[in-house]
Design goal:
The complex is a heterodimer. Chain A contains eight helices and 30 strands. By secondary structure, chain A is α+β, with helices and mostly antiparallel strands. Chain B has one domain: MetI-like fold (Orthogonal Bundle). The longest helix of chain B is centred in the first third of the chain and has 33 residues. The chains are: A alpha+beta, B mainly alpha.
């Protein structure tokens, strides 16, 4: 059977907490022995997914299988998985030895075997001779090692790790990352690792699953995810990037930042709006010359250790981030060049806001839980369900909540070279996408206004 | 002058003076008096006669042992009834609005004597005999909240991820309870035992009311002696009781220090 290649199969799983959708139709397959990282910002549902696999919560819909066995409703103590918790969750009334031996004692193994296994596990995490220490006397890093030992000593088929390094300081985290990777190699067990740290994900994983708002955005190897992000969210979340609006003129020719560029992508059609992603390290920076595709002025230059990070304002008014080993001081005129294969073209998820609503009368349309004035609509009967379109740059945001027709929270900000693309989560629970030149912060409460002439009503 | 006065009141430390005076007059002085009376005879000369009298007096010793027995039975009943109640209250799905907690604590808002008189009336109404059974019932009823609350407190503060960790390591619900929940709620249990045992071992009003003065508890003996002017002997008996309670507290505090999760009231 081919199915047996996969140790974990998550099929069309959704999870609701009351009205809130935590996971929206997730499907994921994990191969035996793989190191899979579920990566996403806080609140994206990554921990919920892990908890469903561990069995602490049950899926509202869908099916989960481990080693081909359906376990969707199996209680956690009967699942062949073990978990390393974010806050370690060591038993405070037991010492290191008894913590690690907890699972083995439940299996009623003879004590000589238990002792051998516990010692082995402690040796693996580099904590020999700590058996009889009180867990509270250990440092954070040591506690985490004990937590890992407690999980691996049971020889689980899958080891689940819920942001295990989040509470450690940077140096310790780097060391532990390497140790985890070693551990994965020597054990050959499947690791499912949840983190919000993209660098950690890139360092550790065989496969990265990028999640956002309860959905899987992209699944791929670290190299794939980094080099070929599927959408602007992934591009922005993984590493530094310049994301710009562009147009695919035809196959292998793209225009953005006021110029045409050769590229390697094809199959987008002609004159299609797209997003362009260029990594800052892929832009060549040099004194102005004929080779330059773009010219501009350096507006900021920061030393980052290995390289310099510079912001360049182009003649056309776009701001690009450039990383280079050479320093170009602020105010210096420079030329920029991008090689065709370093231009990553992504299909736009949407080109304008689309809402479902209904026509109240000729001059009013209701959507986002509000009645909006609109230009007179002919040909559509009042009360009919309609599609409403609003361009990104026609949505007006206001500081003062009361000034807006409805309110929302800014929850994702994307800089697009010459403007910001914001995702505003409205109180109606629908997202409104906004292009603006104003600077907003993540989490800002804003009022949202749309002028009548900017509302396009389309019959269904 | 005024400046000095305001300075005096500004110092945080001075705020504790009223309570310190109260403590001195109503706690320290009486304790000293009890000790002084216990070790002296009616003429005020030092003697161990009061304690000797207790040792030689089988009735007093019997009452003493009987009181401890009643207190233990009450404590055990309170624990058996209180632990499950506290456990249920600490589970979020059963207790979203804390209504249950209020319901369990509510009897404490009523004065203990009124509650006891009501219990007597209830037994009369149901034509049940007053006596030992009524005594234990009355004491359990009165002191149950003192058992529930400290246990509820520790259970409620317990880290949920510890329970998940135990499940994850293969523990079924019973094992989760015996290996994790119970050991970790020990401080609360000890606190509860102490808070029930201490007042029950020394009680006398409840015993008088619920047994029609037929059963004598140690508290009653102390009270009778004091009432009849035998202050020295009464003081000695009080001291013995205090000693017993002190030993109990010492042991349970010792247990507490082993449990680092301190959630108990004491």
């Amino acid at each position: 059977m081919q199915e047996t290649n996969y140790i974990i199969e998550v099929q069309n799983v959704s999870k609701y907490f009351g009205e809130k959708i935590a996971l929206d139709n997730i499907s994921l397959k994990v191969k035996k022995g793989e190191f899979v990282t579920i990566l996403g910002p806080s609140g994206c549902g990554k921990t919920t997914l892990l908890r469903l696999i561990a069995g602490f919560q049950t899926a509202s819909e869908g099916e989960i299988r481990i080693s081909g066995q359906e376990i969707t409703l199996t209680p956690p103590h009967l699942r062949p998985v073990n978990t390393v918790f974010q806050k370690y969750a060591l038993f405070p009334h037991l010492n290191v030895f008894d913590n690690i031996a907890f699972g083995l004692k439940l299996k009623k193994l003879p004590s000589s075997i238990i002792e051998k296994k516990v010692k082995g596990a402690l040796k693996m995490v580099g904590m020999t001779d700590y058996e009889y220490r009180d867990v509270d006397s250990l440092s954070g890093g040591q506690q985490q090692r004990v937590a890992i030992a407690r999980a691996i000593v049971n020889n689980p088929e899958v080891l689940l790790l819920d942001e295990p390094l989040a509470a450690l300081d940077l140096k310790m985290r780097k060391d532990m990352q390497m140790e985890l990777k070693e551990l994965h190699k020597s054990l050959g067990v499947t690791f499912v690792y949840v983190t919000h740290d993209q660098e950690e994900a890139l360092t550790l994983s065989d496969t990265i699953v990028v999640m956002s708002e309860g959905r899987i955005q992209q699944i791929g190897t670290p190299i794939d995810i980094y080099n070929e992000p599927i959408n602007s969210f992934v591009a922005d979340f993984i590493g530094e990037s310049n994301i710009l609006n562009g147009t695919m003129q035809k196959d292998k020719l793209v225009s953005f930042a006021g110029h045409e560029f050769e590229c390697v992508d094809e199959g987008f059609g002609e004159n299609t709006p797209i997003d362009v992603v260029i990594r800052p390290e892929d832009i060549y920076i040099f004194d102005p010359s004929d080779a330059a595709q773009l010219r501009g002025t350096v507006t900021s230059c920061i030393f980052k250790g290995v390289h310099y990070e510079m912001l360049v304002q182009t003649e056309e008014g776009y701001e690009l981030m450039v990383q280079d080993y050479n320093c170009f001081e602020t105010g210096r005129e420079v030329g920029l060049l991008v090689k065709p294969f370093d231009i990553h073209v992504m299909k736009k998820e949407r080109t304008c806001n689309t809402f479902e609503g209904h026509l109240v009368d000729e001059n009013h349309v209701e959507f986002l839980g509000q009645e909006f004035e609109c230009l007179p609509v002919k040909d559509i009967e009042a009360g009919a369900t309609v599609k409403v379109e609003v361009d990104f740059d026609r949505v007006i945001l206001q500081d003062n909540e009361e000034d807006g027709m409805l309110t929302g929270d800014v929850n994702f900000i994307l800089y697009k070279g010459d403007h910001y693309h914001l995702t505003v989560h409205s109180d109606w629970d629908e997202d409104v996408f906004v292009d603006t030149n104003d600077v907003w912060d993540d989490g800002d409460r804003v009022g949202i206004t749309i002028a009548p002439e900017d509302i396009r009503v389309i019959g269904c | 002058m005024l400046n000095k006065l305001s300075q005096f009141f500004m110092r945080r430390r001075n705020w504790s003076i009223p309570y310190a005076i109260f403590l001195l007059v109503f706690v320290v002085v009486p304790l000293v008096l009890i000790v002084a009376y216990a070790f002296t005879d009616e003429e005020g000369a030092f003697t161990l006669g009061n304690f000797r009298k207790f040792m030689m007096h089988p009735e007093a010793i019997n009452t003493f042992i009987y009181s401890i027995g009643i207190a233990m039975i009450t404590t055990i009943f309170c624990l058996i009834l209180g632990y499950p109640a506290a456990y249920i209250m600490s589970q979020k799905q059963f207790n979203t609005s804390k209504t249950m907690v209020v319901l369990f604590i509510l009897p404490m808002w009523v004065n203990i004597l009124i509650r006891t008189l009501a219990t007597v009336a209830l037994f009369d109404f149901l034509k049940l005999p007053l006596g030992e059974g009524a005594l234990v019932f009355g004491m359990v009823y009165n002191f149950l909240p003192f058992m529930i609350y400290p246990i509820y407190n520790t259970l409620q503060k317990m880290d949920q991820s510890l329970i998940e960790a135990a499940q994850d390591l293969g523990a079924n619900p019973l094992k989760v309870f015996t290996k994790i929940v119970l050991p970790l709620s020990m401080p609360g249990i000890f606190s509860g035992i102490l808070m029930v045992f201490m007042p029950t071992v020394s009680t006398f009003a409840i015993a008088e009311l619920l047994t029609m003065n037929n059963i004598k508890l140690f508290g009653t003996t102390v009270q009778e002696n004091i009432y009849n002017g035998m202050w020295n002997y009464g003081a000695a008996l009080s001291l013995i009781m205090l000693l017993l309670i002190a030993i109990m507290s010492f042991f349970s505090n010792d247990e507490d220090s082993v449990q680092n999760e301190s959630g108990g009231v004491i």
